[in-house]
Design brief:
Helix content is 25%, strand content 26%. Helix 1 runs parallel beside helix 4. A five-stranded mixed β-sheet has the order 8-7-6-11-12. With 170 residues, the protein is α+β, with helices and mostly antiparallel strands.
Length: 170
């Protein structure tokens, strides 16, 4: 069953491209772009607990709150948990946002060039070239432990469930 078939954006159905990621899958490696335009390779985080916070655009209210909340959670969870916020925003916008909002523990990376994350994790909204909202948590064994595709893109993810899922890995 595809948990993405009923996703809406502003109440309108959207088609999500790529393969749906599921609990138990091996986390696919992906490439993205750091804020300084250097390459980001998810292999750098192999063997580590990862929380991928996926947002359409950090310049919107819900995305801004989501990014800030997970940055705070990263501080509480300690050095063993790596929080990575992924969007298709340009790296310059991500860098500006991170500085303005004091994002100091979560890493912001952009999937704007290849949409590699969006396709491999099944988060790319067809026609919009934006990522749909969600959470993916990967354990030290590089296996997906938790996935949430938010059904209405403008809604918040379930922060409490994501936090609970991460704490189970610690």
């Amino acid at each position: 069953m595809d948990n993405r078939k009923d996703i809406t954006f502003g109440g309108n159905p959207v088609n999500i491209l790529g393969e749906e990621i599921k609990v138990g899958d091996k986390a696919p490696e992906f490439k993205a772009v750091n804020n300084d335009l250097s390459p980001f390779d998810s292999k750098e985080l192999d063997g580590k607990i990862r929380l991928y916070s996926v947002v359409p655009s950090i310049d919107t209210g819900v995305c801004s709150i989501q990014t800030s909340k997970f940055n705070e959670m990263a501080t509480e969870l300690g050095e063993n948990v790596h929080v990575v916020t992924i969007s298709n925003d340009l790296p310059f916008a991500q860098e500006r946002f991170g500085a303005a909002e004091n994002i100091d523990r979560a890493k912001l990376v952009s999937d704007y060039q290849e949409c590699d994350f969006g396709m491999k994790y099944g988060f790319l909204m067809e026609g919009l070239r934006l990522l749909t909202r969600g959470i993916v948590i990967v354990g030290e064994d590089d296996e997906v432990k938790y996935v949430e595709y938010v059904q209405e893109v403008t809604d918040h993810p379930d922060y409490d469930k994501a936090l609970e899922a991460v704490k189970e890995l610690l």
